[in-house]
Specification:
Length: 70
């Protein structure tokens, strides 16, 4: 598996408040993105959006090669 690090400062604002995020990995960035989608569109619309993204990839998409398997 590839090692990806992220260096980002995300500031999100909406009428009810605001948040700051500093994700350090793709997993943390995904959690932040999903959280913001749910806040913006609601759970069902966010799930539909995420399904559209996953439709781009086959179910067995390997992602980055795993160096331990090579």
């Amino acid at each position: 598996m590839a090692i990806v690090s992220i260096d980002a400062d995300i500031k999100a604002k909406w009428p009810q408040g605001h948040c700051s995020y500093s994700p350090g990995s793709p997993e943390e960035l995904a959690i932040i993105g999903i959280d913001l989608l749910v806040k913006e569109f609601g759970t069902q619309a966010a799930q539909a959006f995420i399904r559209q993204v996953f439709e781009k990839y086959p179910a067995d998409h390997p992602g980055a090669p795993d160096p331990e398997r090579e």
